Inverse folding.
């Protein structure tokens, strides 16, 4: 990034869950390039260490091992962030997992496991992270939803359900935190070319072509394209926005 | 195509209103408690041949993570458990309908969040079971939180129940995988 930044984040202390790969990594990089100080989290220590080394070439970044669906793990991570960064200005709840499987082959245990990763992690990040942000003087929570929140797909029903609730969670939390200076918004990404979507969205070339045919922009998203939106929502430029939803899907859910 | 209907609803004035509305149209109502973990097989078997199911489970107020987790299982998890068992049972019976009462937007924001999940899951179930000679239609009915809790006036409860009964009936045969306003 060069020149004057429209959405200044220099010096902001930001936590990005699932920041070791995919969209989380791309947003982390954009924030670092904007001068933010970052903690990224993930469950895989080896992958986290590699991501931390990579991201350090862009700025001040710290990897913390974290199971975002566990309340105790949040207490540890936020305690470390408080000590290492001196507080928190923003959290991006980016953790997400999708599995493509018909409803008939999805057990209740599967349903609950996917809900914990996609929704419960965001609940914890929003309320626990939001509380630390409020104590640090206010800031922003950004929850990563999905375009799957906006349509019904029986092959990914637990994912649709959880992501639909993430948007509602942001609205509920926006009201909860409104008097404490914490804004809570949701980004609904469409299909971006990440490891997750490569694994779940395209069974073959024909499926890939069919997906593109349904996107008005006629292409998948580049993870780097989500960075400016994350910067905007973390920065004071979006001060008037809370409880809002931002769809970044090339127009896929518009028709 | 009326027959046996299973009402997955805690005992409340809403359940009474739904029972009156469905019985008045010729349905035979059976009851299941959303809190009865693991009882879904039995409840659905007892209501065979099943033609309709109504799910109406109000979220509780909560401020802790364990309470949120428990409410997720009770409200949304119960729809997964009941819906994934009831829809195939209805297919075997020749088709049917599931009506999910979900808190409307503009209500209590936490309840609305649960409503979002219920609407999404209802739509997914609706798409999954829409095709074939014995389709199962699945729709959400948006209601204010006091209706879902059975704390609204008798007139409002009756209005919501009448709309639910319409959605369950063959008159709504081309309506599936959507959210319908209750007029409450």
């Amino acid at each position: 990034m060069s020149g004057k930044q429209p959405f200044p984040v220099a010096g902001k202390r930001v936590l990005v869950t699932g920041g070791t790969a995919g969209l989380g990594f791309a947003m982390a990089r954009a924030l670092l390039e904007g001068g933010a100080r970052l903690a990224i989290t993930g469950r895989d220590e080896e992958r986290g260490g590699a991501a931390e080394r990579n991201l350090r070439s862009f700025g001040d970044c710290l990897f913390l091992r974290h199971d975002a669906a566990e309340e105790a793990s949040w207490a540890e991570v936020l305690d470390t962030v408080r000590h290492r960064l001196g507080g928190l200005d923003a959290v991006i709840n980016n953790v997400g997992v999708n599995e493509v499987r018909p409803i008939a082959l999805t057990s209740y245990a599967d349903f609950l496991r996917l809900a914990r990763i996609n929704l419960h992690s965001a609940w914890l990040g929003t309320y626990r992270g939001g509380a630390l942000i409020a104590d640090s003087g206010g800031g922003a929570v950004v929850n990563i939803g999905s375009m799957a929140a906006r349509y019904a797909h029986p092959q990914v029903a637990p994912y649709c359900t959880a992501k639909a609730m993430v948007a509602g969670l942001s609205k509920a939390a926006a009201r909860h935190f409104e008097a404490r200076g914490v804004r809570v918004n949701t980004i609904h990404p469409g299909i971006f070319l990440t490891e997750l979507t490569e694994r779940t969205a395209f069974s073959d070339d024909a499926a890939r072509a069919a997906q593109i045919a349904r996107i008005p922009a006629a292409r998948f998203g580049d993870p780097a394209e989500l960075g400016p939106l994350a910067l905007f929502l973390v920065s004071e430029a979006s001060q008037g926005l809370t409880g809002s939803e931002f769809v970044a899907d090339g127009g896929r859910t518009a028709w | 195509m009326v027959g046996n209907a299973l009402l997955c609803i805690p005992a409340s004035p809403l359940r009474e209103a739904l029972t009156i509305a469905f019985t008045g149209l010729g349905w035979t109502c059976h009851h299941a408690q959303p809190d009865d973990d693991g009882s879904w097989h039995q409840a659905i078997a007892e209501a065979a041949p099943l033609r309709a199911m109504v799910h109406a489970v109000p979220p509780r107020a909560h401020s802790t993570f364990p309470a949120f987790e428990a409410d997720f299982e009770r409200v949304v998890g119960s729809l997964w458990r009941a819906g994934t068992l009831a829809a195939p049972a209805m297919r075997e019976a020749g088709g049917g309908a599931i009506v999910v009462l979900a808190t409307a937007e503009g209500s209590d924001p936490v309840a609305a969040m649960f409503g979002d999940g219920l609407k999404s899951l209802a739509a997914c179930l609706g798409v999954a079971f829409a095709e074939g000679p014995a389709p199962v239609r699945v729709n959400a009915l948006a209601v204010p939180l006091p209706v879902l809790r059975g704390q609204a006036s008798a007139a409002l409860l009756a209005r919501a129940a009448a709309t639910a009964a319409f959605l369950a009936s063959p008159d709504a045969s081309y309506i599936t995988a959507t959210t319908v306003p209750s007029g409450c």
About this structure: The helical segments of chain B are 13-24, 40-46, 65-92, 109-128, 145-148, 154-168. Chain B is about 45% helix and 20% strand. The longest strand of chain B covers residues 96-103. Chain B touches chain A at residues 65, 68-69, 72-73, 76-77, 80-81, 84, 88, 109-110, 112-117, 119-121, 123-128, 177 (CB under 8 Å).
